[in-house]
């Protein structure tokens, strides 16, 4: 019988993090034919997708930050300045991100996470479906994950 000794270490280590990410990617690729089929294609890597709304002085009035990966748009942040809300800027940002993801990057779906005090009804109003609800994350807040199929837009 082989006896092994292990040591648990709790420290931030970027080199180990990167090694772990590489090894997990290799393990997942070996286990999943879907992930294997992504290797060597444009959908293999995450590509940033940013859309900005600038005011008349060039200041930031709103923006959407996300990325595309594996034919999905992932909306990470969407924000509109209080002074500009109600003018349709959030809808315009989301529509442009979805258009670019669909037409320029071949995405077929979109996902977003939002909290109960933020914008779940905004996203459901734009065709997103709630697929996950996590109560008390963080304590006192509910997190929603929503998805949407990005079909062809009618002209």
Fold topology:
Layout: H1 14-31, H2 33-38, E1 47-54, E2 60-69, E3 72-80, H3 89-105, E4 109-115, H4 120-124, E5 129-134, E6 143-149
Parallel strand pairs: 3-4
Antiparallel strand pairs: 1-2, 2-3, 4-6, 5-6
Concise account of the structure shown:
The chain has helices at residues 14-31, 33-38, 89-105, 120-124; strands at 47-54, 60-69, 72-80, 109-115, 129-134, 143-149. It contains four helices and six strands.
Structural class: alpha+beta
State the low-pLDDT regions, or none: none
Tell me the helix content. Answer: 25-40%
End-to-end distance, in Å?
70 Å
Report the portion of residues in β strands: 25-35%
List keywords for this structure.
alpha+beta; 6-stranded mixed β-sheet; 4 helices; globular
Describe this structure as you would to a colleague:
This protein is of the alpha+beta class and 155 residues long. The protein starts with 13 loop residues before the first helix and ends in a 6-residue tail after the last strand. It has helices at residues 14-31, 33-38, 89-105, 120-124; strands at 47-54, 60-69, 72-80, 109-115, 129-134, 143-149. A hairpin with an 8-residue loop joins strand 5 and strand 6 (143-149). The model has no long low-confidence stretch (mean pLDDT 94).
């Amino acid at each position: 019988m082989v006896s092994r000794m292990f040591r648990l270490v709790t420290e931030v280590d970027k080199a180990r993090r990167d090694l772990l990410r590489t090894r997990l990617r290799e393990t997942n690729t070996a286990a999943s034919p879907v992930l294997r089929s992504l290797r060597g294609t444009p959908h293999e890597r995450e590509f940033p997708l940013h859309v900005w709304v600038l005011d008349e002085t060039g200041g930031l009035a709103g923006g959407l930050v996300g990325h595309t990966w594996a034919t999905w748009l992932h909306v990470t942040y969407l924000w509109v300045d209080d002074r500009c809300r109600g003018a349709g800027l959030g809808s315009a940002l989301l529509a442009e991100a979805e258009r670019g993801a669909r037409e320029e990057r071949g995405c077929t779906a979109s996902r977003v996470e939002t909290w109960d005090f933020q914008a779940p009804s905004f996203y459901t109003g734009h065709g997103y479906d709630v697929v996950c609800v996590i109560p008390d994350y963080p304590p006192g807040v509910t997190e929603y994950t929503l998805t949407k199929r990005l079909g062809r837009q009618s002209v």
